[in-house]
Amino acid sequence: MKRILAGFCAMTGVLGIAILSGCGGGGDEQRVYRQVDRLARPAVNEVFATVANGRHKANDENAPTDDNGSLANDIQSFMTGTAGRSQAITDVVKAVLSPDVIIADLKDNSTTAAYLGVETGGATGNRFGGRALTDDVVDVSLGVIFGGTVPALGLAADDGKEIPTLTSDNVDASGKHFTATFPYLGSPR
Amino acid sequence: MKPKFTLKKTLLVLSALAIVPMFILAKAKGSDHADTPEIAASPGSDLTDVYVFPSPTNANNVVLAMNVHPLIATGAGGSASFDPNVLYQFKIDNTGDNVEDLVIQTTFQGTGSSQKVYIAGPTKPAIMGTKSTLLSPFTTTGIINNTFSPTSNVKVFAGAREDSFFFDLEQFFTILPDRATPLTPGVVVPDPNVPKAVTWRAPGVAKDFLSANGLNVLSVVVELPKSQLIGTGDGKIHVWCTTSK
């Protein structure tokens, strides 16, 4: 209702008429916040979208419902260009990672999360999905982009373009101090 | 299309390109930081990681965590605070159309160690998409760096935490220096998607930059009953976080 009134008031303002109560004064108007950053899955926008040409910024400022026409193009360019993968594998990666949202099944009774668990039918550990603090999301993502993960899941034929030296950054969670009690993330260093 | 990785090309590029200087890495981040020059200049609005996991202490609950403001130096966690001009949101779609059905909103008042935390939700917002208005009512319920319960079955923490992300960030910026450019004003990387190296570092050499340097973030962590997010859906939720000004 407020938005309709605001639109009407703007119109009447332009016409030089202010006959409705509630027009002008601005007391009814709530502050409208505009999105400056957006994040869900780790290392998606950051890896696939270039800073150059404003691609990363565009994805930060739009919504998940825009991803199939925006982020998906960044994934296409990176997968077929930079990573040199087949279109079939690229299509799977786009379908899994766009729209950019973390998916969790709250009716699943697993006691931990497993990144991409819902999207892969449990192949990454369980069907709760979500993202656990200890999930090695970098290695999961590198395996999809540069490794054989998509063919191994039977989702596309092997394209023979794996680059094994890029499938793990060789860093794990051993330097972290997660806790068994809320808030679960470690105390500041 | 020919892949861009060839040994000859890599050697040529590596010999021509300096290693990314340490001062850039002093500004390193989690899984998505200093996205753009604008965000790098406004760290309070810089989202770095989002987590969704079953509560380790209560099978009925789920935990949502949002990390922001990377690169808080070791020892500086106690003096860091959120940006009081920013609206921090968890957005939850429980119908599968990727439009938010519920939001949890956090805003902050004041700065410094006594900064107040305002939180509301999960509630259907008045408008969906990239513009937001505040949920009403918006209750003051806490102070940063102190766990509190807005209602009896919900726990909230907003404050400094060890950065939970782990990654060989130095080597990532060597492979793709375009991704470091928000931290290197004036530097333009030609062929921004052409990798400048073809390998990660070996085990033992590779470093988790964030834990090696004791770097911290600000986190908003909310634990609540799963039932509060399911609504009329089938149990699957799609979650993302946003910062807005």
Topology (elements, then pairings):
The complex is a heterodimer of chains A (189) and B (245).
Chain A: H1 2-14, E1 33-39, H2 45-48, H3 55-61, H4 71-82, H5 87-97, E2 102-105, H6 137-146, H7 149-152
Helix pairs in contact in A: 4-5
Chain B: H1 7-16, H2 22-25, H3 37-40, E1 47-54, E2 61-72, E3 87-93, E4 102-109, E5 116-123, E6 131-132, E7 139-143, E8 155-162, H4 169-175, H5 209-212, E9 216-225, H6 227-230, E10 236-244
Antiparallel strand pairs in B: 1-2, 2-9, 3-4, 3-10, 4-5, 5-7, 8-9
Molecular structure report:
The complex is a heterodimer of chains A (189) and B (245). Chain A has 189 residues and is mainly α. Chain A has a domain at 1-31. Chain A is built from seven helices and two strands. Chain A has helices at 2-14, 45-48, 55-61, 71-82, 87-97, 137-146, 149-152, and strands spanning 33-39, 102-105. Chain A is globular, with a radius of gyration of 23 Å. The N and C termini of chain A lie far apart (48 Å). The relative contact order of chain A is 0.10. Chain B has 245 residues and is of the alpha+beta class. Chain B has two domains: 1-30 and 168-207, no CATH class; 44-166 and 214-244, no CATH class. Chain B is built from six helices and ten strands. Chain B has helices at 7-16, 22-25, 37-40, 169-175, 209-212, 227-230; strands spanning 47-54, 61-72, 87-93, 102-109, 116-123, 131-132, 139-143, 155-162, 216-225, 236-244. The longest helix of chain B has 10 residues, at 7-16. Mean pLDDT of chain B is 87; it is low at 1-30. The chains are: A mainly alpha (189), B alpha+beta (245). At the A-B interface, strand 1, helix 2, helix 3, helix 4 and strand 2 of A face strand 1, strand 2, strand 6, strand 8 and helix 5 of B.
Q: What's the helical proportion of residues of chain A?
A: 25-40%
Which percent band covers the strand fraction of chain A? 5-15%
- Per the principal axes of the C-alpha atoms, what is the gross shape of chain A? globular
Low-confidence stretches of chain B: 1-30
Following the backbone from N to C, one meets helices and strands of chain A in this order, namely HEHHHHEHH
Radius of gyration of chain A: 23 Å
